[in-house]
Amino acid sequence: MRKGIGFLVILIILMGGFVCPALAAVGCTLRDPDRDVRRLFPQSTGYKTTFIAIKERGGEKLLKRIEEKLGEGFEPIYETIDVPYAFYTILKQKEIIGYIHGVNQKGEFGGLQLILATDLAGKILSFYCQRITNPESKKYRDPKFTDQFKGLTLADFYFYDPQKGNISDTTNPLSRIKNPGQRNDTDFKAILRGLKKNLIIFDEFIGGNRYDEVYERIKAHGKHH
Question: Which pLDDT score, from 0 to 100, does residue 119 have?
Answer without folding.
Answer: 98
